[in-house]
Amino acid sequence: MKSAVLFVSEEFKEEAIALVEGANYKIVRIYKLPKSPNVKFYIQYDKLQQIKNDEEISTLIVFEQLKPRHFINLRKELKGKEILDKILLLLEIFALHAGSKEAKMQIELARLKYELPIIKETYTKSKIGEQQGPLGAGTYGVESTIKFYKRRINKLMKELENIKAFKEKSIESNKRNNIPSVGIVGYTNSGKTSLFNSLTGLTQKVDTKLFTTMSPKRYALSINNRKIMLVDTVGFIRGIPPQIVDAFFVTLSEAKYSDALILVIDSMFSENLLIETLQSSFEILREIGVSGKPILVALNKIDKIDGDLYKKLNLIEKLSKELYSPIFDVIPISALKRTNLELLRERIYQLTTQLS
């Protein structure tokens, strides 16, 4: 296991630690992000020197989006050590859990698009003699790399467009066959896959690490003799970078093209975090084009909740209806203990019947 030093704000500390450990790094030190980032390196210069001289540390992770110049200067200063910012860390986790060819293509596209400006700036500096190109190849080597990146990006974009077109035809076919689709959406680790398993009787991988579900899982289940296509989608994260949303459009579009949605919310969150999670969930759904679809909100993990469940339930119902319409219902459940799952199944049936 590679050892890493992590720079992160207090606000995202818990999430960042879960992500870094989910990417199989051992965190040996944690520092707060600087209030005034260093122009050249982003992190504080004295901390940089400590990392440089510490042979135990193999990776520097900055849980923020770095600029190309930061990467170039950090790589020059920390030769032999890996440099990751928030986006590259997320893409590394995605790559670890990618199951389908489509997911792997999306990850590669996002990585190439993100790295291209870094390569271009390296090219600019190599022309004026400030920076050697990748692998010491000089200006010609960087030019070749840029051309390769552009060709590969164009190819991947065309292939993903073809997948998108094929999926849309498949979805239209399901609609002609009168099979409604219901997408399960929500934040990573909210219990989406546990709910999918409980409703379908399947055993999709469930993990406390973030991003267990990397490509959507589909299963046709029968409720009161009505066939319904259930889809377990990729989870959201707080402050998801636009580059990730764009690159994962095809996967996230499972939610856009579903006839209805189940939004899973973790009831163990504090009231403030519940409010923040709801607001950002509906914001992400709007960003990917979800509008006017009925949503069933499932308040999950009620078996682990301390305090007033009904207070949280009322808060979720009131705020959901303020943020989005139509909200079909808000139901407290435990996917793991199967609490209220029959009620949820009945409400899914009623919802899909109204869609016909």
From TrEMBL:
<dbReference type="InterPro" id="IPR027417">
    <property type="entry name" value="P-loop_NTPase"/>
</dbReference>
<keyword id="KW-0342">GTP-binding</keyword>
<dbReference type="GO" id="GO:0005737">
    <property type="term" value="C:cytoplasm"/>
</dbReference>
<feature type="binding site">
    <location>
        <begin position="211"/>
        <end position="215"/>
    </location>
    <ligand>
        <name>GTP</name>
    </ligand>
</feature>
<dbReference type="InterPro" id="IPR006073">
    <property type="entry name" value="GTP-bd"/>
</dbReference>
<comment type="subunit">
    <text>Monomer. Associates with the 50S ribosomal subunit.</text>
</comment>
<comment type="similarity">
    <text>Belongs to the TRAFAC class OBG-HflX-like GTPase superfamily. HflX GTPase family.</text>
</comment>
<dbReference type="GO" id="GO:0046872">
    <property type="term" value="F:metal ion binding"/>
</dbReference>
<feature type="binding site">
    <location>
        <begin position="300"/>
        <end position="303"/>
    </location>
    <ligand>
        <name>GTP</name>
    </ligand>
</feature>
<keyword id="KW-0479">Metal-binding</keyword>
<dbReference type="InterPro" id="IPR042108">
    <property type="entry name" value="GTPase_HflX_N_sf"/>
</dbReference>
<feature type="binding site">
    <location>
        <begin position="186"/>
        <end position="193"/>
    </location>
    <ligand>
        <name>GTP</name>
    </ligand>
</feature>
<feature type="binding site">
    <location>
        <position position="193"/>
    </location>
    <ligand>
        <name>Mg(2+)</name>
    </ligand>
</feature>
<feature type="binding site">
    <location>
        <begin position="334"/>
        <end position="336"/>
    </location>
    <ligand>
        <name>GTP</name>
    </ligand>
</feature>
<dbReference type="InterPro" id="IPR005225">
    <property type="entry name" value="Small_GTP-bd"/>
</dbReference>
<dbReference type="Pfam" id="PF13167">
    <property type="entry name" value="GTP-bdg_N"/>
</dbReference>
<keyword id="KW-0460">Magnesium</keyword>
<feature type="domain" description="Hflx-type G">
    <location>
        <begin position="180"/>
        <end position="356"/>
    </location>
</feature>
<dbReference type="Pfam" id="PF16360">
    <property type="entry name" value="GTP-bdg_M"/>
</dbReference>
<keyword id="KW-0175">Coiled coil</keyword>
<dbReference type="InterPro" id="IPR032305">
    <property type="entry name" value="GTP-bd_M"/>
</dbReference>
<dbReference type="InterPro" id="IPR030394">
    <property type="entry name" value="G_HFLX_dom"/>
</dbReference>
<dbReference type="InterPro" id="IPR025121">
    <property type="entry name" value="GTPase_HflX_N"/>
</dbReference>
<dbReference type="GO" id="GO:0043022">
    <property type="term" value="F:ribosome binding"/>
</dbReference>
<dbReference type="Pfam" id="PF01926">
    <property type="entry name" value="MMR_HSR1"/>
</dbReference>
<dbReference type="GO" id="GO:0005525">
    <property type="term" value="F:GTP binding"/>
</dbReference>
<feature type="binding site">
    <location>
        <position position="213"/>
    </location>
    <ligand>
        <name>Mg(2+)</name>
    </ligand>
</feature>
<feature type="binding site">
    <location>
        <begin position="232"/>
        <end position="235"/>
    </location>
    <ligand>
        <name>GTP</name>
    </ligand>
</feature>
<comment type="function">
    <text>GTPase that associates with the 50S ribosomal subunit and may have a role during protein synthesis or ribosome biogenesis.</text>
</comment>
<protein>
    <recommendedName>
        <fullName>GTPase HflX</fullName>
    </recommendedName>
</protein>
<keyword id="KW-0547">Nucleotide-binding</keyword>
<keyword id="KW-0963">Cytoplasm</keyword>
<feature type="coiled-coil region">
    <location>
        <begin position="146"/>
        <end position="177"/>
    </location>
</feature>
<dbReference type="GO" id="GO:0003924">
    <property type="term" value="F:GTPase activity"/>
</dbReference>
<dbReference type="InterPro" id="IPR016496">
    <property type="entry name" value="GTPase_HflX"/>
</dbReference>
